[in-house]
Design a protein that fits this description.
The complex is a heterodimer of chains A (275) and B (322). With 275 residues, chain A is mainly α. Helices cover 74% and strands 0% of the residues of chain A. Chain A has one domain. Chain A is built from 15 helices and no strands. The longest helix of chain A is centred in the middle third of the chain and has 30 residues, at 126-155. Chain A starts with 16 loop residues before the first helix and ends in a 6-residue tail after the last helix. Helices cover 33% and strands 26% of the residues of chain B. Chain B has helices spanning 68-75, 97-101, 119-130, 135-144, 158-170, 188-203, 215-221, 239-244, 256-263, 288-294, 309-321, and strands at 30-38, 44-52, 57-61, 83-88, 91-92, 104-107, 176-180, 207-212, 224-229, 232-238, 247-253, 269-275, 278-284, 301-305. In chain B, the strands form three sheets. A six-stranded mixed β-sheet of chain B has the order 6-7-8-3-9-10, with helices on both faces. A four-stranded antiparallel β-sheet of chain B has the order 2-1-4-5. Chain B has a four-stranded antiparallel β-sheet with strand order 12-13-11-14. In chain B, β4 and β5 form a beta hairpin. The longest helix of chain B has 16 residues, at 188-203. Chain B is elongated and about 75 Å long. Classes of the chains: A mainly alpha (275), B alpha/beta (322). Chain A binds chain B through residues 8, 12-17, 20, 23-24, 113-125, 272-273, 275, and chain B through 69, 73, 76-80, 97-99, 101-102, 104-106, 108, 110-117, 120-121, 124-131, 134-135, 150, 165, 168-169.
Chain lengths: 275, 322
């Protein structure tokens, strides 16, 4: 206690590209975490009302065949309710939006802002930069998935909604995998072209198209035949909340992601970088 | 003072006297052979060949848009040539980029810093990537350049951002420094510190390649100066040589025909043009022979002007090319 401590002195922050990317994104991560958790709490909080609404029970009384035919929402059971309100569109799309926005900035952003010259003057290969940034993106996306799962799983019982951890995890893994695949597409486009806008546009458009293809598949046989092309269908089409993990479908998404990551590395390495 | 620098063109480098021998020798730090990089909108460099040796400060001079930054970004493997070979330390700029960058410090001409980090975090990040130096060393560099480390980068002035870039290039004392307009935006005091540092680096056998659009800066620190114009290297000269031979512009008011006669075969006097009632001359070296030759004439007026360094450099180059 004799020597005065250096004022506000923090340890020498020797971060690599991975850690720096996460740190730069930390405010975004906090904001998105709060947003996703809030959405989940709101959805959970209205469950008791809907659950006890006699109208919802009318649907439930319909024969199984009819319910399937008219795609009637199941608001009675926990997994049915979450499947409709959270995992049918919103949660996977929110994760994908977050990841695409970040990914489109990974390679192209440093060029746009003019930080890439100083970064690559260091003895790091372009490939390592892309890989470390992708790893940060993956960790960030997984984190949001964890927030989603923790909020629903831990707070569900508070609102008398019970959902099994296995089904919930399967749905979260499917959503995260979908988000990461399209984020990696955004990275590939951005790394190969140097354009953030193009990366964002292509990845968002294809993510939405992928959802539509899967959603329309049951309605039109033409869509049904090519639904397997949709990564949404592969990751989430089988309603993982109720049917659980399907490793076969997930590995399709994983393979596509790895291919897109390879394209990113190749596209970034072969190109002249902008000033 | 400045050590004698080796001539590394064409022949193998002569042994240079390196006070502490701290730098590993071997292949030349920079070697460009027939490098062409042309942009669609024009600009770029054409058929550029250049070799820079150990212990040398090379000033790369040219107007904005002449191809200086293109050349430097080719050295850094940020862009790739359409033709020709870019080699540093004898290694291929692209294939061996990581090995090269371990021995190289780079200051871009235009760059941005990570706005969300402080100067300390930025330099720590780069130190981590290059495996060096420790915090105390970075703090010494910051003190030398009067740089405040704990303010966020977005709050720094242009000059202070430039200092962050300079420290990141210099802090590891790399074998080769590549600096694009290093003193832009710095106050004269810091400029002098930078120049001293660069001279010091060369004195210990390291190599400095710096670009500038003002000759006075290049001439102050460089051993050799190369001039690039519209993408082509038009001249390379030793600073000491063209400095040692002063050039004057002289206007003589006298009968032009008689004057031409009197000048006859004076070898360091060049007639630039006829003006009304006289001649405009360029004189390299001593003015004595000219004055002696004019003595016999009826000279109405004589004016002597010391031209700018740029003019000196260009006329010197013109002269040696003739």
């Amino acid at each position: 206690m004799t020597a005065p401590r250096a004022r506000g002195r923090r340890p020498w922050p020797r971060r690599g590209v991975f850690a720096r990317s996460l740190r730069e994104e930390r405010r975004g991560l906090v904001g998105w975490s709060v947003g996703i958790a809030t959405y989940c709490v709101v959805v959970l909080s209205v469950y008791p009302t809907i659950h006890n609404n006699p109208f919802a029970k009318i649907f439930q009384a319909f024969p199984e065949v009819l319910r399937r035919l008219f795609n009637l929402p199941d608001f009675i059971t926990g997994p049915g309710y979450l499947g409709t309100e959270v995992f049918s569109v919103i949660a996977p799309m929110l994760l994908a939006l977050f990841a695409i926005l970040w990914a489109s900035d990974l390679a192209a952003g440093e060029e746009d802002r003019g930080t890439v010259d100083l970064l690559l003057a260091n003895p790091v290969s372009r490939g390592r930069v892309v890989l470390e940034k992708w790893a940060a993106l993956a960790v960030g996306t997984l984190w949001l998935g964890a927030v989603l799962e923790a909020t629903l799983g831990l707070l569900g019982p508070v609102f008398s909604l019970s959902v099994g951890w296995a089904g919930l995890s399967a749905a979260v893994v499917g959503s995260t995998a979908f988000a990461l695949a399209f984020a990696t597409l955004a990275l590939a486009v951005g790394a190969s072209s140097g354009s953030r806008g193009l990366a964002r546009g292509v990845a968002t458009a294809l993510a939405v198209a992928s959802y539509l293809l899967s959603a329309l598949a049951p309605l039109a046989s033409a869509f049904g035949r090519v639904a397997w092309l949709s990564l949404w269908d592969q990751a989430l089409g089988h309603q993982p909340l109720t049917t659980g993990l399907r490793l076969g479908n997930l590995s399709v998404v994983a393979v596509v992601t790895v291919v897109l990551l390879s394209v990113s590395l190749w596209g970034y390495d072969r190109r002249d970088l902008a000033t | 003072m400045a050590p004698a620098t080796p001539t590394t063109r064409a022949v193998a480098p002569e042994a240079t006297s390196v006070p502490d021998g701290s730098v590993a020798r071997g292949d030349p730090p920079i070697s460009l052979t027939g490098v062409t990089k042309v942009y669609r909108g024009g600009g770029g460099v054409r058929d550029l060949s250049l070799e820079v040796g150990w212990g040398e400060v090379f000033g790369f001079l040219g107007p904005n848009g002449a191809g200086k930054t293109t050349t430097i970004r080719l050295l850094l493997d940020l862009i790739r040539p359409q033709r020709g070979a870019v080699r540093l330390f004898g290694l291929d700029a692209r294939r061996d980029a990581v090995a090269i960058h371990r021995r190289l410090g780079y200051l871009p001409g235009e760059f941005a810093l990570y706005e969300r980090l402080t100067a300390r975090e930025t330099l720590a990040h780069f130190a981590r990537l290059r495996g060096g130096p420790d915090e105390a060393t970075v703090e010494r560099w910051a003190a030398e350049f009067d740089l405040e480390l704990d303010r966020p980068v977005r709050a720094l002035s242009r000059g202070n951002r430039q200092k962050v870039g300079l420290v990141s290039a210099l802090m590891n004392e790399p074998d080769l420094l590549v600096l694009d307009e290093p003193t832009v935006g710095l106050d004269p005091l810091v400029q002098r510190t930078v120049h001293q540092r660069l001279r010091g680096a060369a004195a210990s056998g390291r190599t400095v390649f710096l670009s500038s659009h003002v000759l006075s800066e290049a001439a102050e620190v460089a051993d050799r100066v190369g001039l690039i114009k519209e993408g082509r290297l038009v001249a390379i000269e030793r600073v000491a040589e063209f400095r040692a031979r002063p050039v004057h512009e002289v206007e003589v008011r006298a009968d032009p025909a008689a004057a031409l006669d009197a000048l006859g075969d004076l070898k360091d006097v060049t007639v630039r043009e006829r003006i009304e009632g006289g001649l405009r001359l360029e004189v390299v070296g001593s003015l004595n022979p000219l004055v002696a030759a004019l003595a016999a004439l009826d000279v109405v007026d004589l004016s002597v002007r010391e031209p700018s360094l740029e003019d000196v450099f260009l006329s010197y180059y013109d002269g040696s090319a003739r």
